[in-house]
Amino acid sequence: MHLSVRFAIVACIIMMGLKFTSLTSNVARADDSDTPIRALLVTGGCCHDYAKQKDILTQGISARANVEWAIAFDPDRTTKHLNAVYQNEDWYKGFDVVVHDECSADVKDLTIIDRILKPHRDGLPGVVLHCAMHCYRSEGWTDNKPAVTPWFEFTGLATTHHGAQIPIEVTYLDKTNPIIAPLSDWTTIHEELYNNILGDIQPTATALAKGKQTSKDKDGNEHVNQTVVAWTNMYNGKTRVFGTTLGHNDETVADARYLDLVTRGLLWSVDKLDDAHLKPAAKVLLEEPTTQK
Question: Is the pTM of this model over 0.90?
Answer without folding.
Answer: no
